[in-house]
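Homework help board

Subject: predicted structure for assignment chain

Our instructor gave us this sequence and asked us to write out the predicted structure in token form, then describe one feature. I got the tokens but I'm not sure how to describe them. Can anyone check?
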Amino acid sequence: MTRNLPTYPAILDTTYGKRFALESNCRSLSNNTEYLNNKNTNKNFKWYLRERVSMVNNNHCVSRRTYLTVAGASVVGLAGCVGEEDPDGNGDGPAADEEELIWTCTSEGSSTTISIQGIAPVVNDTTDGIYMEGRPSEGTGANMGRLNRDEAQVAYTQNFDAARVTNEMEPFHDLDFELNEVMHWLTTPWLFITTDEDLESVADIEPDHRVSATQTGAGTRDNLEHALDYVVDDYDDVSVDFTDQSGPFQEGTLDVGVVPIMNFEVEGAYAEEQKSIVDLHVLEWPDDPVAELEDDPMVEMMEIDASELEGYASVPDDQPMMTPGNAYNFVTRNDVDYDVLYDTLHAMWDHRDEYGDIHDLMTYHEDPEMWTDWSYPDVPYHPAAADFLEDIGAWDGAEGGRADE
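My token output:
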């Protein structure tokens, strides 16, 4: 299946966020005067660093009520330092009179997890009786299980898993809930990358090449491996988190990895880190398999001009190029409380002027049409989400209809 490249608004410069992935310790990052003195460092992040110095020196941790939204934002690697009582989430847990709304995301260092953990404190501070929390997960493939066990109420997924749920395909053939859509998050072509300059095409992958199409547990992995099967007969299937490929590339334990290009133009700080450490080459997809993949309803083939991306040692000569991609949306159980979900979405929308302080990725959602872009035609919207989308004038772009009709 192929869709045309959508047009998105310009995003803010991400220079100040590119190298934060190299620091994982809060104290060392907070005291790094290079960041504080660099003219390219975002002024709000400088404020956070100085505050963090004070808090660390006084043995304090940032709770959800004092957590500055930018803290969850541009910093890859700080998520685990926020809220000692709940190192996997964004705060210290709900109060007795608060309704919990857990959003299960993806890798801890991913832009999605950082963004949700950044907006959650804003929602919590501006709503009554709601505690929103963003949690990392092993990947989208694990999130359906969390919904099924009611360990989360909103889950990050992609078109491949959504199709497997609606068609009752394994491993989602025996779920105990009705899947409803909440909102579109991002659209991502996935580039296959290598440090081996002798590899030019996905078709060049041999049985002894170690290939990771994202980490085990990620639904994206199943999707990308499904696409690989059209081109490659055999390879050494390994599991490496796409946000943490630098070490395996350097050590020679990974030959081919992947990198997401969010909304066709944004790369995470982890990608900038990887390109600064090793020479990465982008692999092309052969024409004949691409034609077959475009006819596969389980796969989204996307067009992207890789020549516009910076920092790669080489990209295929023929641009734009086709590559597998995913539409990533948030979904929920049909039995999630209407008022909690409706009020949460409105709080997120009402504070869209703060998105740029949280993460550049979120600035796309200042446009109401972004909330329904690339929606899933076979997944109905939760009534609360449908009413919210009506309120902001985005419902006309939604596919799938309402779950209560």
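Reply (TA_rk): Your tokens look well-formed. For the description, you could write something like this. The longest strand covers residues 179-194. That's the kind of observation they're looking for.
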